[in-house]
Amino acid sequence: MQSNVIRIDDINYEIKSSNGKDVYSILSTELGWVCSCPDHMFRGVKCKHVYAVEFSLELRKSVAEIQKIEPINISGCKFCKSETVVKCGLRKNKNGQLQKFQCKDCNRCFTINLGFERMKHNPQGITTAIQLYFSGESLRNTARSLKLLGVEVSHQTIYNWIDKYTSLMEKYLEKITPKVSTAWRTDELYFKVKGNKKYLYALMDDETRFWIAQQVAETKYDADIRPMFQKSKEIAGKKPLALISDGAPNFHVAYNKEFYTRANPRTKHIRHIRLQGDHNNNKMERMNGEIRDREKTMRGLKKMDTPILKGFQIYHNYIREHEALKGQTPAEKCGIKVEGKNKWKTLIENASKKD
Ligand SMILES: [Zn+2]
Ligand SMILES: [Zn+2]
User: Fold this and answer.
1) How far does residue 349's CA lie from ligand 2's centre (Å)?
2) Using CA atoms, how far apart are residues 248 and 221, in angstroms rounded to an integer?
3) CB atoms within 10 A of CB 244
4) Cα 130 from chain centre
5) CA–CA distances in Å: residue 67 to residues 156, 231, 314, 336, 338
6) Ligand 2 centroid to 102 CA: how many Å?
7) Rounded (10°) CA dihedral 57, 63, 65, 68
8) Which of 7-11, 126-130, 158-162, 230-234 has the lowest mean pLDDT?
9) What is the pLDDT of residues 283-334, one digit of tens each?
């Protein structure tokens, strides 16, 4: 299935033969696909070229399908399940406001606060804090900004919110498969936990920049990063056809164990030694920069496997619009769109929903 399908137009495709000497044409006719290879012409079998064209069409179709994650609307009365419910003003207290609803059947009033029940502060304050932190503010600066909105909390409380909601969102998002491309990149960057250097490894889709998996380790060249590679297969539901890395030995060990197979399609490992001013590794460099810029915000990190690092991944994939992706998020490029004015709120609501 790895064959490179060249699209001429909607009904004409070409594929190079596996020995590289011939080019076969695959044409859509009223009788189905016709291929110019010997298997098809003389033996009349449905050849691998036709399968390859069908497969590539299937792939494009599936990327065109967008999976939407939408804000949760109330579907009925909390008490009697009646569907005739109207909005009836806001419930205000010193920590913010919530939409109130009234049931036309049982007359009771209620608020819906999915994901934020029993929180002292309202969804706006909490999600604003999360956004400020992941877009580069320190915990202390975030607390100062929230004060302007009338939300008075300590930076420890903000850390707890991020911790709690990142874990919640992570569990939910792991069940959604991003439609990533077939070439992935891997790299590491360092940060500090209580003054000690640690490495954050990332595996990322080259085309969409979707950050597929991460792992934190103590060392740079010999950390066993197979767990990250295993995780990436689970998340993406497939292996890449090409893995691009700098030449660090542990990448190759993990590639051999987790991606390499004797059978086709084989994953190639492209060891790309980084040179100064090299444009080819730009994408990873940019992500490194993106996270290194946050080093000051990461000073608050307390533990090695802190969920806050997963929060960076969620922010990178689902929230932040990337200039290089023409204002889209990597998730949108992979067919997943988070709707609503407040994407954090949409994600938290969906993560809290019990089906
Ligand atoms: Zn053929
Ligand atoms: Zn009711």
Assistant:
1) 22
2) 6
3) 22
4) 17
5) 35, 22, 17, 5, 9
6) 8
7) 170
8) 7-11
9) 555 666 666 556 656 665 666 657 788 998 999 999 999 887 888 999 999 9
Write down the residue that tokens 């006719």 correspond to. Answer: 29
The confidence score (pLDDT) of residue 210 equals 94
Q: Where are the alpha helices (DSSP H) in 150-275?
A: 155-173, 226-236, 249-258
> Both tokens of residue 149?
């909105």
The hierarchical CATH code for the domain 183-301 is 3.30.420.10
Is residue 260 within 8 Å of 253, Cβ to Cβ? no
What is the Å distance from ligand 1's center to 242 Cα? 25
Residue 14: both structure tokens together: 């070409």
Q: Residue 100 forms beta bridges with which residues?
A: 111
4-8, 75-79, 255-259, 300-304: least confidently modelled range:
300-304
User: Which residues are 12's β-sheet partners?
Assistant: 27
- Residue 49 CA: which ligand is closest? 1
Domain layout of the chain by residue ranges: 5-65, 183-301
Cβ(8)–Cβ(56) under 8 Å? no
- From ligand 1's centre to the CA of 19, what distance in Å? 13
Ligand nearest to the CA of 41: 1
Here the tokens at position 54 are: 């069908």
Strands 85-93, 211-217: pairing kind: unpaired
